[in-house]
Structure formats: structure tokens, C-alpha cells
Design brief:
alpha+beta, 2 domains, 4-stranded antiparallel sheet, two-stranded parallel ribbon, 8 strands
């Protein structure tokens, strides 16, 4: 036996998620990357099956039910470093009392990070309230939060603290960038957080989504990572986001350079869905799920005769 038969609850959730992704991934490199992540958790599919029909999350649960695999609580004596990496200590909840500017982010004027954090900590408002006019039509930063069940549905584990899922900037208008792009149907190809939400919800099986090129009539070779969704799925994603997410905003002072402030806020909170400017315990999970959707978009184009 190459791997092990004892896993924490967090590891078991990760294994189930990866097994679902393996079943959907294209043969070759995408499946190999997923199997490498399984092996990093100590789970080797070859330990449990020699057949050609594959191994599923249900097979894993069946082994656990019969005692061949043991699943322990995360804080049990058997919990190892893999689980602790997922649940690493996080920064204290930011408040207006924080006064230390992140010296590793040049260009952040004293106090701007603290003003942004004080506003973005909320309380966040439901998406529907924001759509009805609660968002300022000004440049600034925004933070997307998830209700507790949203973290579970995204397979991100239990929330470690009150951090947001995503932080972004709007150079011209919070209304057009946040509400007009991230929470609107038909914009997935232009919205990084929408693509991340889509990938994680598809990987967890919460939504059945079909990835396609963002220009289905004329796919862009080399830009499969900017995938879109078919219309029914895109509508489902919008409905899920509006039902399970909240937003908070910071309208910045005039002539503020937003990039360094955004970077300072991201490094403070380490939001799971931010993929540039910060690396988190969830980065590989999100990137892997998105790579599966990108391969689906490429396969969509290939099946329809486009040159890929």
C-alpha cells in the first residue's frame, strides 16, 4: 500500500472533491495534476482499485462506511500537517483601530489601508439590497462575503474567521464593475470571481455547469481560461451568487491609486478566491477547479469543429 487509510474530516472532504474533478477532467495532464494532489494527501487510487471503471467519491464513502478507511475529526491526535495547512492561523479580524500600514506594499499612503479595512469589514449587505441602489457610483474597493453555508457549498471548509471570499477594485465605478459584471448573467468570461465560483460549485456538484469559450461563435485559442457558461448554467450561477453572497464597499478619496491599497487589503485578509497579488491555502484548489473548466471550454470548441 503506497498511501494511507486514515484521514481527517477536512482531508476526506478534499479527497471527495478531487475524485469528482478527476471523473470530469480530460485525460492526460488535467487528470495527472488532480491525482498528484490526491497523492499529496496520502490517497492513492491504485491502493483501492485495479479496475478500468475508475474510482468515485461514492467508492471512497463506501470504504469509509465499511471501515477500510478511517475518518477522524480534524483536531484528533491523528490529524497531520495537511489538515493544519488548510486551517492555518489567520490574521485577526480587521477593525478601524488598526494603524500599521503594510510596509511590504509600496505606495500605500498612511491610513488608506485602515480606512479601506474599516469600510470593507462591513457589515456587508445582501446582493439584492446592493442592486437596489446601496452601492456608491464611485471608484473604490469591494469585498465579497459568503454566508456560512456558502463556504461549505464551495468546498472551502468551515470559515476560519470573518474574512471575505474575494476582494477587488473598481477604477471607475463600483456599480458597473461589481454589480454590472460580477453579479450579472452573461459576464462570466469577463469576471474572474464568477469563473472561480463557477469552477468550485461545479467541482463540488452543487451546480451542473457547462463551460464554453467566451466567444462561442469565434473561440480565442490560448484563452480557454477565460471561459464562459452556457445560458442556463450562467443564470443558475447568478441566482446562487445573489442568494448566498454579500458585499461591502469602500469609496476611495479622489486621486487614490487603488492597486497598492487593494494589494495591502488582500495580504491582510488572504481571501480564498483572489489568485493574483496573494497566495493562500486555497490557491491550488481554486486554480485546479478552474483548469478543469478551461479544458471543458476547449473540448466544447473542439467538438464543434473549431481549431484549438
Amino acid at each position: 500500500m503506497k498511501g494511507k487509510a486514515r484521514f481527517t474530516r477536512t482531508q476526506a472532504d478534499q479527497i471527495r472533491r478531487l475524485l469528482r474533478l478527476v471523473r470530469r477532467a480530460e485525460p492526460g495532464t488535467p487528470q495527472k495534476l488532480l491525482r498528484d494532489q490526491l497523492r499529496a494527501l496520502g490517497f492513492f487510487i491504485s491502493d483501492w482499485t485495479r479496475g478500468s471503471s475508475g474510482f468515485t467519491a461514492s467508492d471512497f464513502d463506501e470504504l469509509a462506511h465499511h471501515g477500510a478507511i478511517t475518518i477522524t475529526e480534524d483536531n484528533s491526535p491523528g490529524a497531520n500537517s495537511v489538515a493544519r495547512q488548510v486551517s492555518k492561523p489567520s490574521p485577526a479580524k480587521p477593525t478601524a483601530r488598526h494603524t500599521t500600514v503594510n510596509a511590504s506594499v509600496p505606495g500605500v499612503r498612511g491610513g488608506l489601508r485602515e480606512l479601506a479595512l474599516a469600510a470593507l469589514v462591513g457589515p456587508p449587505i445582501p446582493i439584492n439590497a446592493a442592486i437596489k441602489g446601496a452601492v456608491p457610483d464611485r471608484p473604490g474597493l469591494y469585498a465579497v462575503y459568503g454566508y456560512q453555508q456558502a463556504w461549505r457549498m464551495l468546498s472551502l471548509g468551515e470559515p476560519l474567521d470573518d474574512r471575505p471570499l474575494y476582494v477587488g477594485k473598481a477604477e471607475s465605478s463600483l456599480v458597473s464593475r461589481d454589480l454590472g459584471t460580477h453579479f450579472a448573467t452573461g459576464t462570466t468570461g469577463r469576471s474572474s470571481p464568477r469563473r472561480s465560483f463557477a469552477a468550485l460549485l461545479s467541482a463540488s456538484g452543487v451546480l451542473e455547469l457547462v463551460a464554453m469559450p467566451r466567444r462561442p461563435h469565434d473561440p480565442e485559442p490560448g484563452k480557454w481560461t477565460h471561459y464562459a457558461l452556457d445560458h442556463p448554467g450562467d443564470e443558475q450561477l447568478t441566482d446562487w451568487m445573489r442568494a448566498n453572497l454579500k458585499v461591502a464597499f469602500w469609496a476611495c478619496p479622489p486621486r487614490t491609486v487603488l492597486r497598492p491599497v487593494e494589494t495591502a487589503v488582500m495580504r491582510h485578509w488572504e481571501p480564498p478566491l483572489n489568485l493574483t497579488g496573494v497566495s493562500t491555502a486555497w490557491t491550488n484548489q481554486v486554480k485546479t477547479a478552474r483548469s478543469v473548466m478551461a479544458e471543458q471550454a476547449k473540448a466544447w470548441a473542439l467538438k464543434r469543429g473549431f481549431h484549438v
